[in-house]
Amino acid sequence: MAKFPMTPRGQQALKDELKRLREVERPKNVRDIEEARAHGDLKENAEYHAAKERQGFIEGRIRELEAKIGGAEVIAPPKDGTRVTFGSTVRLRASDGKELRYQIVGSDEADPATGRISILSPIARTLIGKEVGDEVKVQAPGGARELEIVAANFPWE
């Protein structure tokens, strides 16, 4: 069984989504199917077909979430130290002086717009194992960038 690395925050988000799907979305969709079925001829009933399609999506997502939660390898983010690992928060300085802030998280919890980058991203793969003070060259989709690790493992908030 595959292991999915994630932070406790990421695991909680998946659990919350699973609970919402089971307790809110699934029952609502069952009611929608019953209501559409009451309208008669199912062959030409667009509401019925849409609700059945949505049911398939909901059930598939529930199975996916159950597998990810079941295979989760929850790793608490480090709170101190200078080495970059999974869960680390990292402050970087680019050669132009601009500072960047990232947290290295699991793929399911990545949100680059807020600074949470996947462990599988080029930047994260380059940073893992490095220390504060190290300079790294990152091959990113926008081209190569040289970055200095200014700080690591500080509180995200």
Q: What attributes characterize this protein structure?
A:
about 160 residues; two-stranded parallel sheet; five-stranded mixed beta sheet; Helix Hairpins; alpha/beta; 2 domains; elongated
Unreliable runs, pLDDT <50, ≥5 residues?
none
Radius of gyration: 22 Å
- Order of helices and strands, N to C? EHHEEEEHEE
Number of strands: 7
Structural class computed from helices and strand pairing: alpha/beta
For the report, how would you describe the main beta sheet?
5 strands, mixed
Distance between the termini: 34 Å
- How many discrete structural domains? 2
Strand content: 15-25%
CATH superfamily of the largest domain: Transcription elongation factor, GreA/GreB, N-terminal domain
Helix content bin: 25-40%
Q: Do you know the CATH topology of the largest domain?
A: Helix Hairpins
Strand order of the largest sheet: 5-4-3-7-6
Instruction: Give the mean pLDDT.
Output: 91
Principal-axes geometry comes out as elongated
Q: Just name the CATH architecture of the largest domain.
A: Orthogonal Bundle
The CATH class label of the largest domain is: Mainly Alpha
Figure out the total of helices. 3
